[in-house]
């Protein structure tokens, strides 16, 4: 779309995100007026890191969703529908089972490895059907289910069910400064690699033959995307658990506006993803005070009808 | 053919014995364990295996979709959400005893709602098999999110119970509850002989059925409703246990071929064998404690499901 329209949309979304963020900082178990927000300890030490983690997760989920949708040419592709979340959850359940820390860089790397393995399995299993979009999602969800069952069994056998369940369901309540820093590092790596590969990824969306004839090594680009997405999955799932459907929804909302422009798609998807997440967690923290429910269950609830809608569109 | 059924029966009998004794010959201990704990559990597992596999058989035949069963098209999660809804209500008003009879009503209602969704979004429109399954995944995600939300809104709720509704396990061996479920299963079984003819005609294809003067939509709806009844019984007994209804009809077809009645009987037997076998494994793997049944079934079921997807 033309620059001017993009700028308009961009600033509208940023403005909206700002308003939501201010609300997010003000409202909670105790509400504070706007004037008191910036001096308040609770706000600065608890709500601000949590807001930052929402931004980071929003960024990682939307860009990953956008990338796997390009890579597999599949509008339904997303971390949870490709089994990536399941793989990462399984890797993390191993940490819990052996009583290791889940709050350091190692846990991010381990869950990234799990995510990468699951994604590779799904790709291998569906290569024969030439990555038929609907079948890929079926295989992906099954692989995810299998990995999740393994994870549940492991944690069940080692009496960590409750910890695992609370954590895997996608909640921002257990965020720590370490996790925010880790996610920031991963996001930076993600951005740098995305810049380096952006031209080649753009060509990938024209189809394999076209990209190959223009001198792009398709498999290399695919591999880079897989690594990126696995890293993003590892970082988010190790920090906040599984958040489904955000990576699916955000790029879809943006697509009609941004059409084929790569960076416009990325930027607007990221903003949309952040807005969705801040909204979800705002509701999760404030709807049933003093109880909090996991933001992940809310995105799942809203994402399911959206998923149906995309299936219907895809089948046409 | 007779030999095959005798073989199935004897396998079932042998693993049932194994499930009851669990390789121990300590008669004194067994005389306490079996009547009080293991026999009720075995009855539940058998009934659930039968109910879930028959539901899967009917759904696969009517939907003409080899990968459909009450789990994959979202009905199981609907029935689970219905049961959880009643758990919440019971928890809130401290309902016990007599109120256990409401479980089936809520589970059936949940199953009907889920079926309404899958019917409206997929089955009604003659869409591809794969799309039906994806719609089922979306419906399952929706109800599972509901269950998670419900579980976190009640403090006294324990996590094991939720795990049951999300993945399946034996959760309630209360005699009166068990009786209610068995009565429901018997009612569903009574309907079965009357629907076999319809099922056979439907499986001949739409044109054939129309020439025979059958109202296809009406017949299909009736058959689906019977399947819902079976699925709801299965959910009441073992929660959201997946894959049994999916695999059993395939195994039965391999063993006895395509004839409906034979295949149905073999399906029910296979379903029972799968679940009892899974139950033995779940009791032995991390003895003295036991794994939830649903996990064990998923280990066998998920790879098989992926293998079937490749073939569609």
Automatic annotation (TrEMBL), chain A:
InterPro entries: ABC_BtuC-like, ABC_transptr_permease_BtuC. Its main location: membrane. It comes from the Bacteria. Keywords: Cell membrane, Membrane, Transmembrane, Transmembrane helix, Transport. It is found in: Cell membrane. The chain crosses the membrane at residues 52-70, 82-100, 106-125, 137-158, 164-197, 223-250, 262-284, 291-312. Pfam families: FecCD. One of its GO terms (biological process) is siderophore-iron import into cell. GO terms for cellular component: plasma membrane. One of its GO terms (molecular function) is transmembrane transporter activity. It is a multi-pass membrane protein. PANTHER family: ABC TRANSPORTER PERMEASE PROTEIN MJ0876-RELATED, FERRIC ENTEROBACTIN TRANSPORT SYSTEM PERMEASE PROTEIN. Belongs to the binding-protein-dependent transport system permease family. FecCD subfamily. This is Iron ABC transporter permease. It comes from Lactococcus allomyrinae.
From TrEMBL, chain B:
The lineage of its organism: Bacteria, Bacillati, Bacillota, Bacilli, Lactobacillales. Belongs to the binding-protein-dependent transport system permease family. FecCD subfamily. GO terms for biological process: siderophore-iron import into cell. It comes from the Bacteria. It is a multi-pass membrane protein. Keywords: Cell membrane, Membrane, Transmembrane, Transmembrane helix, Transport. This is Iron ABC transporter permease. It comes from Lactococcus allomyrinae. One of its GO terms (molecular function) is transmembrane transporter activity.
């Amino acid at each position: 779309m033309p620059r001017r329209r993009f700028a308009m949309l961009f600033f509208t979304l940023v403005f909206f995100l700002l308003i939501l963020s201010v609300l997010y900082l003000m409202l909670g178990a105790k509400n504070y007026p706007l004037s008191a927000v910036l001096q308040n300890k609770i706000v600065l030490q608890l709500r601000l890191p949590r807001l930052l983690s929402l931004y980071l997760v929003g960024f990682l989920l939307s860009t990953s969703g956008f990338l796997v949708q390009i890579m597999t040419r599949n509008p339904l592709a997303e971390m949870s529908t490709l089994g990536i979340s399941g793989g990462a959850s399984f890797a993390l359940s191993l940490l819990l089972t052996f009583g290791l820390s889940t709050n350091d860089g190692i846990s991010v790397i381990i869950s990234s490895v799990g995510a990468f393995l699951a994604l590779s399995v799904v790709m291998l299993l569906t290569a024969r059907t030439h990555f038929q979009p609907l079948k890929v999602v079926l295989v992906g969800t099954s692989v995810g289910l299998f990995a999740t069952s393994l994870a549940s069994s492991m944690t069940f056998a080692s009496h960590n069910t409750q910890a695992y369940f609370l954590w895997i369901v996608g909640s921002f309540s257990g965020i720590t400064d370490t996790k925010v820093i880790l996610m920031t590092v991963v996001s930076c790596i993600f951005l740098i690699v995305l810049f380096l590969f952006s031209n080649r990824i753009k060509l990938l969306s024209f189809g394999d033959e076209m990209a190959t004839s223009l001198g792009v090594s398709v498999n290399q680009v695919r591999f880079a995307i897989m690594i990126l997405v696995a890293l993003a999955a590892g970082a988010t799932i190790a920090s906040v658990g599984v958040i489904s459907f955000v990576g699916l929804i955000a790029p879809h909302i943006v697509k009609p506006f941004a059409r084929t422009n790569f960076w416009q798609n990325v930027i607007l998807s990221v903003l949309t993803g952040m807005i969705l997440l801040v909204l979800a967690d705002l509701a999760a923290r404030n709807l049933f005070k003093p109880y909090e429910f996991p933001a992940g269950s809310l995105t799942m609830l809203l994402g399911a009808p959206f998923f149906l809608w995309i299936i219907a569109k895809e089948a046409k | 053919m007779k030999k095959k059924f005798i073989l199935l029966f004897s396998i079932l009998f042998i693993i049932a014995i194994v499930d009851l004794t669990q390789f121990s010959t300590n008669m004194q201990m067994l005389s306490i364990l079996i009547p009080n704990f293991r026999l009720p559990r075995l009855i539940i597992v058998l009934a659930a295996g039968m109910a879930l596999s028959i539901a899967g058989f009917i759904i696969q035949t009517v939907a003409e979709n080899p990968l459909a069963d009450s789990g994959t098209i979202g009905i199981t999660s609907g029935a689970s959400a219905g049961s959880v809804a009643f758990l919440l209500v019971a928890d809130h008003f401290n309902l016990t005893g007599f109120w256990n009879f409401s479980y089936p009503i809520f589970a059936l209602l949940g199953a009907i709602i889920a079926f309404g969704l899958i019917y409206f979004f997929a089955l009604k429109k003659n869409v591809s098999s794969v799309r039906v399954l994806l719609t089922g995944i979306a419906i399952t995600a929706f109800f599972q999110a509901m269950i998670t939300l419900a579980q976190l809104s009640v403090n006294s709720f324990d996590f094991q119970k939720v795990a049951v509704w999300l993945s399946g396990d034996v959760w309630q061996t209360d005699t009166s509850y068990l009786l209610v479920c068995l009565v429901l299963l018997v009612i569903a079984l009574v309907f079965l002989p009357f629907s076999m003819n319809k099922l056979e005609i439907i499986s001949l294809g739409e044109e054939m059925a129309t020439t025979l003067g059958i109202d296809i939509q009406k017949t299909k709806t009736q058959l689906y409703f019977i399947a819902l009844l079976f699925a709801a019984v299965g959910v009441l007994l073992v929660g959201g246990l997946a894959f049994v209804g999916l695999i059993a009809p395939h195994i039965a077809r391999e063993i006895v071929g395509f004839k409906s009645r034979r295949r149905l009987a073999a399906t029910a037997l296979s379903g029972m064998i799968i679940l009892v076998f899974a139950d033995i494994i779940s009791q032995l793997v991390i003895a003295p404690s036991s794994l939830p049944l649903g996990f064990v079934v998923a280990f066998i079921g998920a790879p098989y499901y992926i293998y079937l997807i490749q073939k569609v």
